[in-house]
Specification:
mainly alpha
């Protein structure tokens, strides 16, 4: 029994560390976009497009921060984790539609697509596994 609890705790910590690392990407890119707009692309855009870009960057920043907020009690944050994952997957599907309609984007955008459609759902499945293990052991779960 002690080995199982230690194993569950190790898996929980590894999940927390993985979420911390992966969520750094939307936090950093979102913050950069909020502060600098489209300066990274050096494309001239209208003030309205710049405003929209900063708004979307703020949403990205917020999603990353919300993923970080699940970390302290990640084993009972299933509902929040699933909602955030759904938002990320919807964004990834939108990016995929853009790829089909307009062509292959930059390497970084393809990387984002992989995170949105593969990494985030895998982390969500892992979080569900950890939540289920803890619920079986302690009877604690979030709906």
């Amino acid at each position: 029994m002690g080995d199982m609890m230690a194993s569950m705790e190790r898996e929980r910590k590894l999940l927390q560390q993985s979420v911390a690392i992966v969520a750094t990407i939307p936090v950093a890119t979102g913050l950069y976009g909020v502060l600098f707009g489209q300066a990274l692309t050096s494309d001239a855009v209208s003030i309205s497009a710049e405003s929209h870009f900063r708004f979307m960057s703020g949403l990205l920043l917020g999603i990353g921060l919300c993923f970080w907020s699940t970390m302290p009690s990640i084993e009972i944050r299933t509902g929040r984790f699933r909602l955030l994952t759904l938002l990320v997957v919807i964004g990834g599907l939108s990016r995929l539609i853009g790829l089909v309609l307009t062509g292959l984007p930059s390497f970084f955008m393809v990387g984002g697509l992989i995170i949105e459609l593969i990494v985030a759902p895998l982390l969500c499945l892992w979080q569900t596994r950890v939540a289920n293990l803890y619920a079986e052991e302690y009877g604690v779960a979030e709906v």
